[in-house]
Amino acid sequence: MLTIKDLKANVEDKNILKGLNLDIKPGEIHAIMGPNGAGKSTLGNVLSGREGYEVTGGTAELEGTDLLDLDPEERARLGLFLAFQYPVEIPGVSNLEFLKASVDSVRAAQGKDPLDSVSFLKLARAKCKLVNLDQSFLKRGVNEGFSGGEKKRNEIMQMMLLEPKICILDETDSGLDIDALQVVAEGVNSLRDPNRSFIIVTHYQRLLDYIVPDYVHVLADGKIVKSGGKELALELEEKGYGWLEDAAENGAA
Amino acid sequence: MTDFHNGLLAVNDEANSPLSAVTALNSSGADSFLAQEIPTRKTEAWKYTSLFNLTSNEEGYGRLAETHGAAGLDGLATIPALDAQRLVFVNGQYSKELSSNTEHKNVVRFSQADDAQKSIIADNLGSAIEQEKHVFGALNNAITTDGVLVHVGKNEQLKTNIQITHITTPQAKAFTVPARLLIVLETGAQATVVEHFASTDDEQNCFVNAITEAKVGANARLNHYRLQLIQEGSIQIGGVHIDLDRDANYDSFQLGLGAKIVRNDINVNHNVGGSHCELVGVYLPQNKQLIDFHSNIEHKVANCTTSEVFRGIMADKSKAVFNGRIHIHPDAQKTLAELSNKNLLLSNDATINTKPELEIYADDVRCAHGATIAQLDEQARFYLQSRGISAAEADVMLSFGFINELLENLELDAIRNLIRPILAQRFGRDEELMKHIG
Question: Do A71 and B391 touch (CB under 8 A)?
């Protein structure tokens, strides 16, 4: 599904990703954990094409298509979805109009006709219900005045509407209380599919109690320094990241 | 005194109002107008707004329109779904055909006023405007013959909205439309007045000189909409002059699309205390249009509040001017005043001259002001793109949103629904890009 080879990227001339490799097969959930500043968020931003992230080497292919040369919207239309750590508030643009524009664009890329307004509204309302957001959120400005949890649920709702192939959740659990966390996790679990993969970027093991990963990777200093099964997350929770960073340094030396 | 002065005054040569209050105003207006020089770019308040297109027009604007036909103007005269008592003027003349069928006791043309209404006109007309400071106010005083009075009595809450529409059509020669509106709300009265300026799509050659005065009584509330949806060949210069009594409320929304020259002076006087004024405005010039909003809020007394938010988007080679003066007199303690002006430039050739101007002579006040000129938010654009929306469509949606944010609080849905498609057309010049706005 998604194959990342030796990915290197700079932010403001600083090396952040230093040769990252990751191979994600259809239907798999990969968790990426790591200390602050390791490059976790950079990975999501580079893959989704945010300005200011300069790729200096390597490749990232989604089903054989090189993502790195594409505009952000083209990547999204191919089926890449980034759930933002800090979803952006856009007053004046209604959530519903935004969602419709988004779904229409992705459908158009797939050769499908846009949904008519009534069908779309029905669909959006149904998804609202699934993530426990009141329908009034559809009328409000995009994320405008939403609480942290509401913003994250709005992200999951977008994911449900767009039905992407690869979903990257960038610290979606940060700032969430346990109820919101469960709603988010249920949303993700409901989207699990043999043809859809997930990258769950998180600092804490907590989310992984609810979304059980197939693989856990530790990202430190711009590289994957350790990979394992879901039990690795528990080990990290217990021991912290220090021992791995030490190991990485020793390995490098 | 110049040919230009005399030319414009000639508009009123043959007119003769049956109201002595109007003829008296005409003569004091003419004196004041003749005593004032026509502003040039050296006049501080006109530094960025040239009157060249008005003053240099070869045939001059010094005549009234010759035709006032209503045929085909139904659509322009109507604001869909607005429940309103409607008075419509075509090229300055009242159109019975386009106006509401029935009369309304709260709205009358000066020429039709009964004795009680005449005395209200006599007591109030011209009293909120300082004509020696507003040359085009003086002009309007001089050339007004028939205006509209909206009068709401003590503690009366007007359920029906009042809509006053001025439509222009091109004439053989350039012409002037003097438009005058006087709103008088007695103690505890409430009213919503929609002023609406429209024109046919043909190239216009009118000069609309429109002045609105409002006297908002103690505890009274005026909701005022002023929509300038005029074709770009037009010239419109005038303004609103508002006197606020104790605990009065003035809530206004202004929309201007820009034209050959559009200049609106907004003057609000907090005269007694406890009054509140809320000004929201949007301007959207394109092509080579010009639009200028000059607001001046006089906090003469203590405990009054002003909130003023104007936003503009300038496209192509257009130009906008915004000047927001808030003058807090020495006695105006405990004043709360906020002024915000945000602008988006959509092209390198577009211009905005913005100037917030706080003059504070009291020491116990809270005032804030800000003026920004910005590009669209990169973060927001990326967010939309990351959901599959093209950069071009994202820009259209964000520009629309920048203005739409101010529309969300409008009380009248009908006005919002009238404006949104107009906005959408301004930004989404490509059908493909405007599917998801409006």
Answer: yes
Judge whether residue B302 has pLDDT over 90: yes
**CATH number of the domain that A141 lies in?**
3.40.50.300
Q: Calculate how close chain A gets to B376, using CA atoms only, in Å.
A: 11
Q: What are phi and psi of B379, to 5 degrees?
A: -60, -45
- Look at residue A245 in the predicted model and tell me its pLDDT: 63
Average pLDDT, chain B: 94
pLDDT band at A178; cut points 50, 70, 90? confident
Indicate the pLDDT class of residue A253, thresholds 50, 70 and 90: very low
Interface contact B397-A98, CB threshold 8 A: yes
| Nearest-angstrom CA–CA distance, B237 and A94 | 35
Q: Do B364 and B329 meet the contact criterion of CB atoms below 8 Å apart?
A: no
Domain map of chain B by residue range? 3-374, 377-438
Which among A72, A84, A90 has the least Cβ separation from residue B401? Answer: A90
A vs B, Cβ pairs < 8 A, gives 95
What DSSP string describes B172-240?
Answer: SS-EEEEEEEEEEE-TT-EEEEEEEEEE-SSPP-EEEEEEEEEEE-TT-EEEEEEEEE--TT-EEEEEE
Of B272, B127, B271, nearest to B211 by C-alpha is: B127
Mean pLDDT of chain A: 91
**Rounded to 5°, angle at Cα B84 from B82 and B85:** 155
Structural domain range at position A195:
2-252
Number of folded domains that form chain A: 1
* Beta-strand relationship, B161-168 and B190-199: parallel
Count of residues making up chain B: 438
Q: What is the DSSP letter of B126?
A: T
pLDDT for residue B401 is more than 50: yes
Across B25-38, average pLDDT:
95
Residues B337, B325 contacting (CB under 8 angstroms):
no
pTM: 0.87
Chain B CB within 8 Å of residue A79 CB = no
Does the pLDDT of residue B86 top 70, yes or no?
A: yes
Nearest to B23 by CA among B33, B12, B32, B7: B12
